[in-house]
Amino acid sequence: MYRKDLMKFLWFSCLFVFLFNYYSPYVAEENGVYTSVSNSVLNTSSISNSVLNTSSDYLTQLILGGEAVGFEYQGDGILVLSNNRVATMEGYIENITKEQLTVGDIIHKINGIEVNSAEDISNILNNEENLGTEVTLTITRKNKELETKVTPVYDLFAKKYKLGVWVKDYINGIGTITYIRPDNGQYGALGHPITESTTGEVLGVKTGKVYNCSIVGIARGSRGVPGELRGAILKREVLGSVESNNDYGVYGKIEDEKMIDSGTLIDVGGRATVKPGKAQIYSSIDNGGVQAYDIEIIKTNYQSISNEKSLVFKVTDKELLAKTGGILQGMSGSPIVQNNKLVGAVTHVFINDATKGFGIYIDWMLK
After folding, report:
1. Is 192 marked active-site?
2. Fold of 85-163
């Protein structure tokens, strides 16, 4: 019965709330004010703040995450979102064919020159030696690198040459830290890659920062529409760097010593120790800090290779259900703890039942 029930649900894989916005640090706006959620305190018999032996690259203990933070990074290339009609002497025209550039392509170079922003593209196209001449673009399309040629056209309103596409060059938003390594500050978050909402493409990281953030509200979900945490990225409170965006999450380094020194160490479990039964997730759904919330792991999948849907769980915590209705966008990366061991992280929510979600084994995030 469970298998049939599971197949009826659609899962929603953007628990990371991201907003492509060039001007505002806000992910969203909300007037609601929420108080701290009280919950059971984690049994600390196997958890301490002591310094541990880190001679092995695979640590037996990590600093437990759960903090909601703000991410912002410049992409490793320029992502093509759609065509953009250009105003010319002949009227509005579509300058680009699908063979030349298509949605999801990532532009890396023009005439051999690396581009990291939309401004870089404009500067190259409007360089005196390139005006109105065919240029060669080095792009990635479906993980394959290739070259394509395009002749820019002059936009009468912008008074400059353009390719004729809408592009994005950086991402910002909020998500949840899963763990921090106590020996070097390296962190893992989200448990799945950040993808661009309209194309589904994963944009690599050129450079980026992780910031403190303030949760300003909660938008409760409804059937078919997941809820979300809404927060403001605090640009003056830099916590560290963003270095990678891959299949297992977002990675970088926490450089804020206070965040590391005040962290709680926890033993590392994983797919060898996790089993159906009671567990907790650790998350920040307001400005009251990280809290523990009860869940029931209802299925664990045998996996010999990595997969972001390793286990299925159901939220049983009454206070969390009352506040949020279940799992929210923005809670992706929330650590999953069972028997005082870090075993995984929240990755997805069932779109038709926000009380249920998927998690990834911590093993895959540590690879």
Report:
1. yes
2. Pdz3 Domain (2.30.42)
